[in-house]
């Protein structure tokens, strides 16, 4: 922002339907108005807060911001400034959402959005919230606007639209529109249906009626880039190397001289978490690999060999296969499976910690999608999709304190950190495997017999995918043992056997995914081998469902 206007007073309509006076020192205030709680070491440069009003695109906004090497976090409209301000925010994005600002229970921006002299970008519903709370008028559109549209810039110059053409394709999805802008705002762009498709004031507050985060808005990436760098003054220094350095410092501060046990599953998440903690506290960490009986064929042996060869960690192997499978006896509900496995893991770790002197901490590879989908207090606006065993599945009375250095990273970011730490490709690029393991790839009750069938099917799937040189190209590939049986004929005899489903998806971060169009000859080989090599199966089907509407795992 080139000029800093004088402080102005605005009337803000709050979610309590009250009005309060807030002095917005636009561009001024103590140290740029960034007073607040203790800062998070992950984001010393300053991050972006995304206030989530329940939009299906909130996670995509976060992805787009991080693609510019700017840290961001998604927060609930109910979050306090003490919670939100710890990342030293340089700007705020208000997401879209399904509500109308006139709905009785419509979520509105918390007062702190307007009290800290921070730039704000409202997207779709977020723009309407800005207009509504700052004294403008939002009304139902006479003609709703969904899908492709064309934005025409006004003659007003704006850092948000700098360097963009006078007209450009955008993606709309709204039923309400801005009828009157708040005091001090100007229209910066319009469409044939929306006289105010972009608005802004001189203090760094902007609203977009369209979605810049989706690929259908061709110049959306540049718009977000302009907001981050021209308006908020971000520097784009949130790199894997910086994350590693900051995380090591944060782990040392948290753990001090205490001992840590790390839940090591063999996947990239727990491996990177273990490597970070090891880099921070050295021999204070002991990695525990638990064979829960829900792993793939020969996986315990391969995992132990890989980590002992490559990472030089203190390793403790615990064979608890019978214990976990026994706890799952008779359980068919997927949520109960996840919680049962999560609780049993904690009990195993607590027992192991009791044998190790001065052990207070449990490190695990929790990721941001786990937190979002499990609907924790920090993501209250998001609907709970499923409880991840390492988040919502944790027992309330657990004694160990959690160390979760990857809690706000997406999977591809974790892989980048793994590379920065020097982990070998066989660990970094291993396909994701769920914490509850094969328990949630068996529909219905988990039994030793079903586990044996699924292990052999899964082995064939991975073997063929690797043989076709497709493993690194796919996000996940696996088999599911359904709870259906079908009639077949083999050797002139009638069979009535299991149906196995094959799942192969592509994704960047597991928040969305598309089914992969595997070559027919690969599918044919997988099917042929399964029905010939696994006697209990006589039919193979291929899952062609994207996420959404499905999830990647079946349970």
What does this structure look like?
With 555 residues, the chain is an alpha/beta fold. It folds into three domains: 8-231, Rossmann fold; 240-428, Rossmann fold (3-Layer(aba) Sandwich); 446-542, GMP Synthetase, Chain A, domain 3. Helix content is 29%, strand content 24%. The chain contains 14 helices and 20 strands. The chain has helices at residues 58-67, 81-84, 125-133, 220-231, 240-255, 268-281, 299-310, 321-327, 334-355, 368-374, 411-420, 425-428, 448-467, 520-533, and strands at 8-13, 19-24, 48-51, 72-75, 91-94, 120-123, 137-153, 167-180, 186-190, 198-200, 205-208, 259-263, 285-291, 315-319, 359-363, 401-403, 476-490, 493-506, 514-515, 537-542. The strands form four sheets. It has a nine-stranded mixed beta sheet with strand order 4-3-5-6-11-10-9-7-8, sandwiched between helices. Helix 7 (299-310) links the parallel strand 13 (285-291) and strand 14. The longest helix is centred in the middle third of the chain and has 22 residues, at 334-355. The two termini are 49 Å apart.
